[in-house]
Design a protein that fits this description.
Length: about 280
């Protein structure tokens, strides 16, 4: 039976520490979030970020737009926020409305305020092994490894998913830690055989039950990043009920990687605050 990598508990530990540190300063770190899509999931994500930010001691600013929003409107807002000394972190909640280019919009953010870690400058620093603001979900995964004393050097790691949000950055972080990484996706041939040779599997595709028991070697570490809905239930990429019987460690869905993502985002915002205010 697998041991649980408790993301909720670890995230709360991070947030409690942040709350204590924030209380030491007269000025509060401030996070601005731009929402320009009509996705209910995105609205829930932003609401969770707002709730966590306020509970932890951050100021929170929300900018919501309907389908009539133009590229120029978002550009002007971001440039204004870049110059606003009261704002330390800027997030553009993805995806955007179809007529907007997410990469172009994110590229307008001041890299020092890019607390999502998606700006080309921050991604480039990550690729060079000298990251500053790291993408929140990959950062959360790496924090879980550290919290549970899971060594990565020399491990064979399979990353399923090639997105700029999870797959690519987490692969770079793992390489920087000395792991041997195979980056696959849901269409990779011989995925089962590759998985069976892996000490760690990280799946981030949104395909329910993509990772099954017959793909996991005994004692392997399973990180489930995928999210999909089945009625009122949230499901991951991993067939949790069966895989947990053979894995050594496993993250649940929910209460696994999700809480770590938000906690890491708050960590990034606090780090940006310290940098921009000249406190570090």
């Amino acid at each position: 039976m697998a041991m649980i990598l408790d993301g909720k508990k670890t995230a709360q530990k991070i947030l409690d520490n942040l709350k204590q540190n924030i209380s030491k300063y007269d000025k509060k770190p401030s996070l601005a979030v731009i929402l320009a899509n009509d996705s209910e999931a995105s609205k829930i994500y932003v609401a969770n970020k707002e709730k966590t930010a306020k509970e932890t001691g951050f100021n929170f600013k929300m900018y919501q737009f309907d389908k009539s929003v133009t590229k120029e409107q978002l550009k002007n807002l971001i440039l204004e926020l870049n110059l606003d000394n009261s704002v330390h972190g800027i997030i553009v909640q993805l995806p955007l409305f179809n007529h907007l280019d997410g990469k172009e919009i994110i590229g307008l953010i001041d890299p020092k305020k890019d607390v999502d870690g998606f700006h080309p400058y921050n991604m480039g620093k990550l690729a060079q092994g000298n990251p500053s603001l790291i993408c929140a979900t990959p950062k959360g995964i790496m924090t879980l490894f550290k919290e549970y004393n899971i060594l990565l050097q020399g491990k064979n790691v399979l990353v399923i998913g090639r997105s700029n949000i999870v797959g690519k950055p987490v692969s770079l972080l793992l390489i920087n830690e000395g792991a041997t990484v195979f980056c696959a996706n849901s269409k990779t041939k011989n995925l089962k055989q590759i998985a069976l040779n892996s000490d760690i599997i990280i799946s981030a595709t949104g395909h329910k039950n993509l990772v099954t028991k017959d793909m996991v070697k005994e004692g392997a570490i399973i990180i489930d990043v995928g999210i999909s809905r089945e009625g009122n239930r949230i499901r991951g990429d991993v067939d949790f009920e069966n895989v947990k019987d053979i894995a050594g460690w496993i993250t649940p869905v929910p209460k696994g990687v999700g809480p770590m993502t938000i906690a890491s985002l708050m960590e990034n915002t606090f780090e940006a605050f310290l940098t921009l205010e000249g406190l570090k």
